[in-house]
Amino acid sequence: MTPPLIAHVVYHFGTGGMENGLVNLINRLPRESFRHVIISLTDHTEFRGRIERDDVAFHDLNKPPGHSPGWLWRLHRLLRELRPDLIHTRNLNAIEAQFVAVLAGVPARLHGEHGRDVFDLQGRNWKYNLLRRAARPLIRHYTCVSRDLADWLRDTVGVAPARLTRIYNGVDGEKFHPRAEVRPGIGPDGFFQGATCVIGSIGRMVAVKDYPTLVHAFIAACSQAKRPEGLRLVIAGDGPARSECLALLDRAGLSPQAWLPGNREDTAEFLRTLDVFVLPSLGEGLSNTILEAMATGLPVIATAVGGNPELVTTCGNGLLFSPGDGAALARALLDYAVDPERRAREGAASRARIEREFSLVRMAAAYRAVYETALATRYSLLATRY
Question: What is the pTM of this model?
Fold first, then answer.
């Protein structure tokens, strides 16, 4: 018997936390239980190479900016051709595909929320929420990656709790593991020599991630530290904010103590160069990079937004601060820099929590249960009930 086909619909398939979670899911769901196709409303990148299965097709609709309706007809034709048993759209910018899926006769329809739009971090935009409420009767079930998103879907969008499943992202605890005594041999020659505390992050260097606040805090910490020469800052990732951060470090005379290499493929090794992981973002769903840092055995300093408080607990495995509060972040960096015992204790707590709660096996099992339930009732009238 041919396994049911799941059509995963995203706006763009490239480097990102949501896409990484989708890759991990497809790689770990049983091949004999599900077939998969990925539909990108725009296009995809070489990131698709991380999918280990050779039977996952990609379809790009090449949607242009703006409100051109042509992609809607292309999606309708594609769905009629593929005849998926289940469609799973992800995030606001793909939710319109739910209307097309109804017209194309897709029987099981799911929607997932992985984080709110950068222009509406609190999820209060009335136009966006009007679209979400209009799509709500068409969606059989919702998935989300954090308690924060679950509460918002229930209270603001009006999703009934029975139609909502929170599934935390998982992380590969074998790939992301604590380092041995010696730092990995990557980076500029001699960069880590003499380092007493390496502070770092990984992510897209775009406005919502707010990396300039981290750079300002690092500069302030160096100006106040008794041994500033031992501090290092490393940030892996690319985007518009990278040049701004490099300029800030250059003006402060701290370029020799910073390494911003752009995008890296060796993220696990990169994380093992760190002593403290920092995520200064203005908004998050549930951060994969925090999970990877925790699996690496690092303490985490993060903003108290989105799902971050569900991963980071003060006096547990790290510290939370208010978005944009560079002074508070600088104080935190100084505290961690002089306290290796705290770093070791909180890093061990991070790793222990990953092993207990955030395995990829647990994540895949939860999605499999949601898919099987939706498929079992896909021809029921309940599929379109509020």
Answer: 0.86
